Amino acid sequence: MNTRAWIVFLDESGVSLLPRIRRTYSPRGRTPLLRHRLNWKRASMAGALGHHSTDPHRGARLCFHLKPGSYDTTGLIEVLEQMKVFYSGERVVLVRDGLSAPWSRAMRAWVAEQDWLTLERLPAYAPELNPVELLWSSLKKRELANLAGDHLADVADATERGHSSPIRA
């Protein structure tokens, strides 16, 4: 069996136009104010972080997808189709979280038809095993902290800046 493949961790997360309130600094005596429109629009993000199993010199690859609303079977298939192009038909072992909600019967049937894709599952409620969770944590603590955008495009721009910037400790 050929074991040369990309090991890819997949995870989804949600964001909103409601700001994530975080501690900040301001001059003494000037309390910072955060003004927003109480807009409840939501978007969903999917991230797939890959490492090659036999060639570490190929580096890590991040495939990122953002869409208004939440993911359903069709939306997740779009993400996987994007990954197929992103990895140029190479073999991919996709490691996903243990929650089964977005993995419907139709999704499992679609995956079964893909010769480039193998699924592995993490235990349920084990976010410490998925490195994409660290990306979400970083984005929400830094780029999305105190962001009071008017449109989902503002959130999209902030997440784009966050995942394309160098990793910070």
Chart the SSEs and their pairings.
Layout: E1 6-16, E2 42-52, E3 61-68, H1 73-86, E4 92-96, H2 105-112, E5 117-121, H3 132-141, H4 152-164
Parallel strand pairs: 1-4, 4-5
Antiparallel strand pairs: 1-2, 2-3
Essential attributes:
169 residues; alpha/beta; 24% strand
What does this structure look like?
The chain is an alpha/beta fold and 169 residues long. 27% of the residues lie in helices and 24% in strands. It is built from four helices and five strands. The protein has helices at residues 73-86, 105-112, 132-141, 152-164; strands spanning 6-16, 42-52, 61-68, 92-96, 117-121. A five-stranded mixed beta sheet has the order 3-2-1-4-5, sandwiched between helices. It is elongated. The relative contact order is 0.22. It comes from Streptomyces sanglieri. This is Transposase. Residues 7-144 form the Tc1-like transposase DDE domain.
What is the compact description of this entry?
By secondary structure, this protein is of the alpha/beta class. The chain has four helices and five strands. The model has no long low-confidence stretch (mean pLDDT 79).
